[in-house]
Design a protein that fits this description.
With 91 residues, this protein is mainly α. The chain contains 2 helices and no strands. It is rod-shaped and about 85 Å long.
């Protein structure tokens, strides 16, 4: 068997593994990007919680409601900001 034939056989045997590794790498990169986005939204929700607590105090409302509604508003704003950032990057 010549060296070129041996190389061709080795490449043919290893190629599916490299494709699988590349697929796994792409999937992990997508998961890491999704986790990063969720963490960014969590920071917006945390800031919204603080704003909601202050608003509830000033408006003489229940603190728990202010915390929850502030977190929901912050999370919605975070997803909106990420959506707008994604639109500006693709354009």
């Amino acid at each position: 068997m010549e060296k070129t034939q041996a190389d061709a056989i080795a490449r043919a045997m290893l190629e599916p593994r490299t494709e699988a590794r590349e697929d796994i790498r792409r999937r992990r990169a997508a998961q890491a990007q999704w986790l990063h986005r969720k963490r960014q939204v969590a920071w917006f929700a945390l800031a919204g919680t603080g704003v909601g607590a202050v608003a509830a105090y000033w408006l003489d409302q229940q603190l728990g409601g202010g915390l929850v509604y502030g977190a929901l508003a912050g999370a919605a704003m975070g997803w909106g900001v990420l959506w707008l950032r994604g639109r500006s990057r693709t354009s």
